[in-house]
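A reminder from the course coordinator: this example appears on the midterm review sheet, so study it carefully.

Given structure:
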């Protein structure tokens, strides 16, 4: 079930605006992570009782759906790429990577919930269209592969620092140690190389 695919009647005349619920949910997730996002916490920040939210949502899962799409919709870099007259797939995915690196909780949510909000659908539609126009034999499958790579890259991006700082035992892994000592690529540079390998530009 998803917030975006479930119809619900608004039973209260002064129901909380879904945009307010989404905004507060993003703030809680950015500040406290997924564990900090509860119906009670959102209700408190919106100035209503928890029962007051249930005219708009079915439960905590809806909060994640709303937050996920709201955060993407507020991202200026992603919006710039989506709105371009000549959109570029790589730059779109790099902007998406930066978005996920900024909102790391989104990677955890995406691991469990397929996004169906309007902002995610805009990005998905553009990806599929660009891949189809580029001649991909399986545009949707390729879109899944690229998205999964971006999500994984964003999730592990913070590890880049410790990868450089921690020594490698040259006796146990001599080739790895030698290569790592001369390697200084950033997480975004590695992302771009990976994208080029997964779907080379024509």
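Designed residues:
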């Amino acid at each position: 079930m998803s917030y975006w695919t479930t119809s619900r009647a608004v039973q209260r005349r002064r129901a909380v605006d879904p945009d307010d619920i989404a905004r507060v949910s993003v703030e809680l997730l950015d500040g406290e992570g997924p564990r900090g996002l509860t119906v009670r916490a959102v209700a408190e920040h919106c100035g209503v009782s928890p029962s007051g939210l249930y005219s708009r949502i079915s439960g905590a899962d809806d909060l994640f759906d709303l937050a996920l799409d709201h955060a993407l919709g507020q991202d200026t870099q992603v919006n710039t790429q989506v709105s371009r007259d000549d959109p570029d797939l790589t730059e779109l995915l790099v902007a998406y990577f930066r978005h996920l690196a900024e909102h790391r909780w989104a990677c955890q949510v995406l691991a469990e919930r397929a996004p169906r909000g309007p902002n995610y659908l805009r990005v998905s539609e553009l990806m599929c269209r660009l891949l189809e126009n580029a001649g991909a034999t399986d545009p949707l499958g390729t879109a899944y592969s690229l998205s999964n790579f971006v999500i994984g890259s964003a999730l592990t991006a913070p590890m880049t620092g410790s990868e450089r700082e921690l020594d490698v035992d040259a006796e146990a892994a001599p080739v790895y140690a030698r290569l790592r000592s001369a390697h200084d690529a950033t997480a975004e540079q590695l992302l771009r190389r990976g994208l080029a390998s997964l779907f080379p530009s024509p």
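Residues 1-71 form a domain with the Arc Repressor Mutant, subunit A fold (CATH 1.10.10.60). Residues 139-156 form the longest helix (18 residues).
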